[in-house]
Amino acid sequence: MMLAVDIGNTNIVLGVYRQRELLHHFRLSTARQATADEYGILIYNLFNMSGLSVKNVEGVIISSVVPPLVHVIVEMCVKYIGKEPFVVGPGIKTGLNLRYENPREVGADRIVNAVAAIERYQCPLVVVDFGTATTFDCIDANANYLGGAIVPGIGISTEALYQRASKLPRIELEKPKKVIGRNTVHAMQAGIIFGYAGQVEGIVRRIKAEMNAPRLKVIATGGLAPLIAGETDCIDEVDPMLTLEGLRIIYDRNK
Ligand SMILES: Nc1ncnc2c1ncn2[C@@H]1O[C@H](COP(=O)(O)OP(=O)(O)OP(=O)(O)O)[C@@H](O)[C@H]1O
Ligand SMILES: CC(C)(CO)[C@@H](O)C(=O)NCCC(=O)O
Ligand SMILES: [K+]
């Protein structure tokens, strides 16, 4: 078995693979102050509850966009799983040709998504990941990683509204029946969901023009991908496990 760990700003997602098969996946909230022992308890319990044993884990791969948590999760792996993990970053083979001005600046999650998308879909393509931030990653016809765009995530955008405007409540992110909202909640839902879909369409349209690739494939991932994909026809595929798949592929290239 192999364990893949994606440390994001909101969630830590874990995937347990047997060869290419994802056996189980788990989602923890990202707690920046939690210790290696605390994460150890969670993982140990999740494994037991799923009929898995940490003893059967042959290797671990981690990607992180939260730098202070890397050593905590590495320490947890060494202490509770008995394995020194691979950490996506300098020294790890990804097979990706990064055209960013400073390749070390690109978020590891974006690199991992790009690796998975290149393996699973035809280039040129764009990956849109609806996480804490929404990221757009552009891959040209020769599988080069060109860069892309970073926008505030749907969660962040929604929180900003109720935190900064006294009369706006916290809302459930669900699609309203109409774009013309006749109460505060419906008006906010319409603005956020249809506005977000329009934003994605606008960015994708500009990317296609800039890359001169009108038939470029658009792959979406992240928790809120299905919600937005339902509101626009500019998304060709929703692939919820793309990041874990990318980690699995990179693990295989380095083991
Ligand atoms: N139903 C919902 N209503 C409101 N906010 C939501 C909802 N679902 C997710 N969010 C928020 O949207 C953001 C993205 O969540 P999601 O689970 O897609 O991201 P993630 O993959 O955990 O992100 P990261 O990898 O950055 O940790 C988070 O800030 C989350 O709190
Ligand atoms: C944009 C996020 C926060 C998305 O998780 C992450 O990929 C990140 O911290 N990236 C670093 C900046 C960059 O990718 O250019
Ligand atoms: K993510």
From TrEMBL:
Substrate binds at residues 100, 107-110, 184. Its EC number is 2.7.1.33. The active site is at residue 109. InterPro entries: ATPase_NBD, Type_III_PanK. Keywords: ATP-binding, Coenzyme A biosynthesis, Cytoplasm, Kinase, Metal-binding, Nucleotide-binding, Potassium, Transferase. K(+) binds at residue 129. It comes from the Bacteria. It is found in: Cytoplasm. A monovalent cation. Ammonium or potassium. It holds the Pfam family Pan_kinase. Its main location: cytoplasm. GO terms for molecular function: pantothenate kinase activity. Its cofactor is K(+); NH4(+). It catalyses: (R)-pantothenate + ATP = (R)-4'-phosphopantothenate + ADP + H(+). ATP binds at residues 6-13, 132. Pathway: Cofactor biosynthesis; coenzyme A biosynthesis; CoA from (R)-pantothenate: step 1/5. Belongs to the type III pantothenate kinase family. Catalyzes the phosphorylation of pantothenate (Pan), the first step in CoA biosynthesis. PANTHER family: TYPE III PANTOTHENATE KINASE. Homodimer. This is Type III pantothenate kinase. The lineage of its organism: Bacteria, Bacillati, Bacillota, Bacilli, Bacillales.
